[in-house]
Amino acid sequence: MMQFFEHVTVLRDCNAIAIPAGIAVTLNKGKEVVITQALGGSYTVNDHGQLLRIAGKDADALGKDDVVENEADADVGAGDGVNLVRIVDQLRSCYDPEIPINIVELGLIYDINCYALLDGRHHVRITMTLTSAGCGMGKILAEEIREKCLSVANVDTIEVIFVYDPPWSNDMISDAAKLQLGLL
Predict the structure, then answer these.
(1) DSSP string covering 2-64
(2) Residue among 91, 25, 87 at smallest CA distance from 58
(3) Contact 155, 89 (CB under 8 A)
(4) Can you count the helices (H) and strands (E) in the chain?
(5) Residue 141, SS3?
(6) CA–CA gap between residue 67 and residue 102 (Å, rounded)
(7) Which pLDDT tens digit goes with each residue over 14-28?
(8) In this structure, what is the dihedral angle of CA atoms 145, 56, 106, 175, given to the nearest 10 degrees?
(9) Which of 20, 42, 73, 88 is deepest in the core (most CB within 10 A)?
(10) Cβ-based neighbours of 147, under 8 Å, separated by 6 or more
(11) In the beta sheet, which residues pair with residue 47?
(12) DSSP characters for 112-134?
């Protein structure tokens, strides 16, 4: 597996999330950090041993462009229903901030259901787990999932439910991801 490391100087104060605690912190201008992961529109940086997640909207603080992924245009003509393939595509753009594998390949997604509401809107419920029940990044990951999946045509509401039974294990990782991680 290829490692990605880029040393950068923070160009402005920006919001960050401490990994794995999920606590909001401020990364100060002028700080020297190392980008260890740039996947799914967010960045993981190492600040003297502390891993921090930087949202794509703050990419400019790292000297990067914010990559806005909007699938709605690709769904034009999809009819009145929700294209679940597009939902899965969006989930594949959500990455664990410590492991460079998307949440689908990690085996974190247990179920996806779409419900047509009486008022004609569509509600998507995603049932998933985390690699650790005590992971503080759950709220942050759920918000990223909501933002990305709401860009899919005809999706009006997103509900992310975390369950811990069955508990996540390495056996749930796809063979392709295991190969990428050197587990096969």
Answers:
(1) ----EEEE--S-EEEEETTTTEEEEEPTT-EEEEEEEETTEEEEEETTEEEEE-GGGGGGGT-
(2) 25
(3) no
(4) 3, 9
(5) helix
(6) 17
(7) 999 999 888 999 999
(8) 130
(9) 42
(10) none
(11) 50
(12) EEEEE-TTS-EEEEEEE--SSTT
Type of residue found at 100: P
Q: How many angstroms separate the CA atoms of 98 and 37, rounded?
A: 8
User: Would you state the pLDDT for residue 33?
Assistant: 95
Distance (Å, whole) CA 136 – CA 81: 34
**Maximum C-alpha span of the chain:** 53
Q: What is the pTM of this model?
A: 0.79
What is the CB neighbour count within 10 angstroms for residue 74? 14
Q: 102 forms bridges with which residues in the sheet?
A: 95
Helices 84-91 and 138-149 pack at an angle, to 10 degrees, of 140
